[in-house]
Amino acid sequence: MLSAALSDLMRSVASWRLWMLLGWMEIRQRYARSRIGPFWLTISMGVLVAAIGIVYGTLFGQNLSEYLPFAAISLIAWGLFSSMVTEGSTAYIANASYIRQVATSKLIFILQLSWRNLIILAHNLIIIVVLFCIFGVKRFAVMPLFIPGLLLLTLNAMWLAMLAGLFSARFRDLPQIIASIIQVAFYVTPVIFKPEALARHAYIAEYNPLTYLLDIVRQPLLGIEPSATAWLVAIVMAVVGWLVALFLTGRYLQRISYWV
Questions:
Q1: Most exposed of 14, 49, 145, 199 (fewest Cβ within 10 Å)?
Q2: Is the dihedral of CA 229, 232, 238, 244 positive or negative?
Q3: Largest CA distance in the chain
Q4: Quick one: pLDDT at residue 243?
Q5: Are 89 and 178 in contact (CB under 8 A)?
Q6: Taking Cα atoms as reference points, which of 70, 245, 214 lies closest to residue 152?
Q7: What does the CA dihedral 198, 202, 207, 209 come to, rounded to 10 degrees?
């Protein structure tokens, strides 16, 4: 079962020109004939960061020079994760016509949505650069840790997208359920609030694995070295998650065409 999924994954990766082109063209079509084009993504995220940063920073009594970069990085990282998982739930359903008519690799659609969301992330990183220019960078030494952190966040989002897409193809009510779960997860994960703000209820963040996925991306950019626990949780999640996702994908790979 693992061999079938690995074979499908390798064929999908080998077709990188196809899924990279499809991912980019989908963004271009979304903003066709727009003067600003994909940079509307940056503008909309910038407005969201400014609104949430100022309002919640004031409510929480935070120093805006510290809270705005925190909120921006958190919202952008969360946007990548949540979009990949929610879009993953409809990855096979939305491409049902291709799956039924063409004998194509199934995981190519997971790679396509992952690439598309990484392009969106690249546009949104401009906001973080602007904030660094305004408020300064805390520590350049730990900033490179952002790269492996982003890789682990993406890998974890990918296996969740694989499982979401697989089960949603079989059970059509799941995309709505997954969207609701992601919405609830946003409020119980330290995205717009800092973990220490929970005080005696800090266990909500400590036992939430999404906290650690955000930390390994967020903390290096804020000049903080992520803890060994955060790295360990993220790595274990990625390894176990990918094994489970590949096993189940390999087991039901041939049924996807009938489910959609």
A1: 199
A2: negative
A3: 57
A4: 96
A5: yes
A6: 214
A7: 50
- At a CB cut-off of 8 Å and minimum separation 6, what does 259 contact? 92, 169, 170
143-152, 174-183, 193-202, 214-223: range with lowest mean pLDDT: 193-202
> What pLDDT digit, counting tens, does each position of 166-202 carry?
999 999 999 999 999 999 999 999 999 888 888 788 8
Question: Rounded distance, CA 158 to CA 252, Å?
Answer: 18
C-alpha pair distances (Å), 80 with each of 45, 166, 231, 240? 12, 20, 19, 21
Distance of CA 109 to the CA centre of its chain: 15
In the 8-state DSSP scheme, what is residue 191?
S
pLDDT, position 83: 95
End-to-end CA distance of the chain: 21
Instruction: Name the token pair of 188.
Output: 């119980």
pLDDT at 254: 87
